[in-house]
Amino acid sequence: MQEVTTSSPFRRRPPPRLRTKTGCFKCRERRKKCDESRPICSACSRNGFACIWPSTKSPSSQPNHKIPDTRADPSPDPSSPTPSSLECIWDDWGVNTLQAPKARTLFDYFRSALQPLMFRSHVHPIYLTSDWFVHGALQHSSLMHALLAVSAVHLSCLYPAYRLTGIEYYSQAVSATREQLEKKLLKGTEDWLIMVLVLAYLVEIWFFDDIPSIKKHLEAASHLLHSRQLSFKKQDLIPDPSFERLIAESILCNTSAISMLMHESCDVSSDVVSKHLELFPGEKSMESPLLGVSPELYFLVVEVSRLCFQESVEMEEAKGLESRFFEWREGSMGDIDSEENELDTNFMLGVRLYVLSIELLLARLLGNREQSEILDLVAEAAGVIGEMGSYIECALNMDYYTWPLLIIGAAGKGQESCETVVRERMENIKKKSGCGGVKLVSSLLERVWDFDAIEPEEDGLGILLRIGREEIAQL
After folding, report:
1. Alpha-carbon distances of 181 from 184, 207, 322, rounded to whole Å
2. Which of 6, 46, 9 is nearest to 24 (CA)?
3. Which domain does 45 fall in, by range?
4. pLDDT at position 398, please?
5. What is the 3-state secondary structure (H, E, C) of 44-93?
6. Which end of the chain is more exposed for a tag (fewer CB within 10 A), N or C?
7. How much is the pLDDT for 366?
8. Rounded CA separation 306/266 (Å)
9. Cα 279–284–286 angle (5° rounding)?
10. Could you tell me which residues come within 8 angstroms of residue 271 by beta carbon, excluding any fewer than 6 positions away?
11. pLDDT digits (tens, 9 = 90+) for 96-143
């Protein structure tokens, strides 16, 4: 009897070999090699998957929602906790939002196109390689929605269909953050929370031109900055100095940019911001992500603007600001003009516009300049604007130019050459950015130039300060 064999003539293919034993769960499930980059591996980041890690006893392999922040100094004391490692309240995963194709498109756009534009062109490489906003967004849905809103707002300048998308994501970010604050689920020192406020400013100034809301966001960011200072000291935390400086500079830069558009005093504490910058100094100009020069220049912008809107000017205070300005100019402009200066020449032209604008406002406050001197300052400023050509520094923060251009344009009322060069410059920035703040200033200047003075000696700055933003905008 012939023996019957049960073996198949075809060899069964063995099951696929698991290519990773220590990678994330998603790579294990897909049987793909994981590069084990935390908190989001490259494969999950590229494909928009939720990157979940196994829980172990090792401090470096905590579950995904408890991963400590690695942005701190590379050689901190291991026994000292980092701010993010102490955060115990987390919202829904931001990475889950990326399951939607449109969200992934906006996320990739932020990483590839917008993030490099958030800083000055000659900034320290750490600001270009430390993906604070990206990493935070992947862990917190509120920050992710704010990040996606910024991308949609920027794209809406060229593709209007993104406008509604931007509004939707921004509304989700604001409502979710407000809900957590109202329920008192937050400590107020979370990294992602202050990053939401930074992005909220960009959305507001680009999209809605809502100065009162912008003012509230800046004030809230200032209060959070103070809370962070107290937390660092109380809990002996080791924060990332580059990140902390970025946040402080962002608050100061944004406050100064709209200081002539806020007729009510903004409750942004100069002392708090100044202290933060002192705690996390940038010894070289390239270590300054946004300001590029000594913060004192931008503090002067805020203080001089505030004084201009007071009904009665305190001459002693104005003289004090003038002394501070001269001291800063003597101590800083020499270094700026030196051949060893590492800053971009075009960027320094923007700084000169700030310097000339402060001089124009101080001259008006103190009344200590002849009219011929005022005209010379305006002519010099117009020449600087002409030298800049089509150059734009820090493209995502186009409102950097709004303050000096508003001052110079108003002071140059009636001088055709100045009005022309300022108008051309504003149009150039509007075409490249679509920034709401730039559009607002451009509109204000046109109205100032067309508005008749009540008295023969009233100049453009007088008209701007007398009428005010709200009344001009309604004409």
Report:
1. 5, 24, 42
2. 46
3. 17-55
4. 59
5. HHHHCCCCCCCCCCCHHHCCHHHCCCCCCCCCCCCCCCCCHHHCCCCCCC
6. N
7. 92
8. 9
9. 110
10. none
11. 888 889 999 999 999 988 888 788 777 888 888 888 999 999 989 999
> What does the angle CA 9 – CA 11 – CA 15 come to, to the nearest 5 degrees?
155
Spatial distance between the Cα atoms of 463 and 438, rounded to a whole number of angstroms: 20
In a domain, 221, yes or no: no
The token pair that represents 227 in the structure block: 């809370």
325: its two tokens: 């300005």
How far is Cα 435 from Cα 130, in angstroms, rounded to an integer?
Answer: 26
Specify the pTM: 0.76
Q: What angle do CA 67, 68, 69 make, to 5 degrees?
A: 120
* CATH number of the domain residue 27 falls in: 4.10.240.10
If one counts the domains in the chain, the total is 1
The alpha carbon dihedral of 199, 200, 201, 202 has a sign of positive
What span, in angstroms and rounded, lies between the C-alpha atoms of 217 and 212?
9
Does 249 fall in a domain? no
Determine, yes or no, domain membership for 308. Answer: no
Q: How many CA atoms lie within 13 A of 364 on its CB side?
A: 28
- CB 360 within 8 Å of CB 374: yes
Residue 409 lies in a domain: no
